[in-house]
Amino acid sequence: MSKHVFLTGPPGVGKTTLIQKVTQALKSSGISIDGFYTEEVREGGRRTGFDVVTLSGKRGPLSRVSSGSSTSRREYRVGQYVVDLVSFEQLVLPMLRNVSHGSDAEKTVCVIDEVGKMELFSQAFIQAVRQTLTGSGTVVLGTIPIPKGKPLDLVEEIRSRKDVKVFNVSKENRNSILQDILAALESCRK
Predict the structure, then answer these.
(1) Of the candidates 113, 131, 109, 129, the residue with the CA atom closest to the CA atom of residue 27
(2) d(CA 184, CA 48)
(3) Own/partner pairs, 171-177, CB within 8 angstroms, 24+ separation
(4) pLDDT at 125
(5) Distances from the Cα of 128 to the Cαs of 68, 85, 119, 133, 156, in angstroms?
(6) Do 164 and 136 meet the contact criterion of CB atoms below 8 Å apart?
(7) Average pLDDT for residues 18-28, to the nearest whole number?
(8) Cα dihedral 131, 24, 144, 68 sign
(9) DSSP state of 121
């Protein structure tokens, strides 16, 4: 029996867009929902980083293209991006700790977009995600990257959990999969 729903697929395929559509649909049917998604930041037509945007409307940097000048504090990097761990944790951790206090009767949906390389630099985030997945009052709607290179422990853990339903999002199915995701979440909330 699935308790959580995760979307996976290649970068840019439309996972976050689907998450936003699902969020809208759930909100309009009065379902309690919280969480965050990541959004590209573009300047002059090129991607310069990612922001974390919470469903309550807060926003902060997740990562930015490195300016090349190295700072003395420990830098967390993914490709050309430097991850702003402090900003990410300040936005996401309080929300994750609050959301896991939903009740069995009225399960809250918690959006986690995404459990990816940048986010996994945070040990506290890893812990909070694990707690949210094991808590009984919360249904997680999340995204995970497709396996590439070295496996990411938490991602593989999520992928192989018996209580997680994973949808593979592709260019072919991304416009027709919305109802299936909503139906899966509906049965998770029962």
Answers:
(1) 109
(2) 35
(3) 171/13, 171/14, 174/9, 174/13, 174/14, 174/17, 174/18, 177/18
(4) 98
(5) 32, 15, 12, 9, 16
(6) no
(7) 96
(8) negative
(9) G
State yes or no: cis peptide before 157, omega within 30 of 0. Answer: no
Count the alpha carbons within 13 Å of 119 in the hemisphere toward its beta carbon.
Answer: 27
By the 8 A CB rule, do 62 and 68 touch? Answer: no
Q: Which helix (H) or strand (E) holds 35?
A: strand 33-43
For the cut 60, the answer to whether the pLDDT of residue 95 exceeds it is yes
C-alpha span between 9 and 93 (Å, rounded): 25
Classified as helix, coil or strand, 120 is helix
pTM above 0.85, yes or no: yes
CA angle 15, 188, 128 (to 5 degrees): 65
* Residue 119 DSSP symbol: G
Q: Are 182 and 7 in contact (CB under 8 A)?
A: no
Q: Specify whether the CB–CB gap between 73 and 84 falls below 8 A.
A: no
pLDDT in tens, 136-170: 889 999 999 998 888 899 999 999 999 999 999 99
Q: Is the pLDDT of residue 72 over 60?
A: no
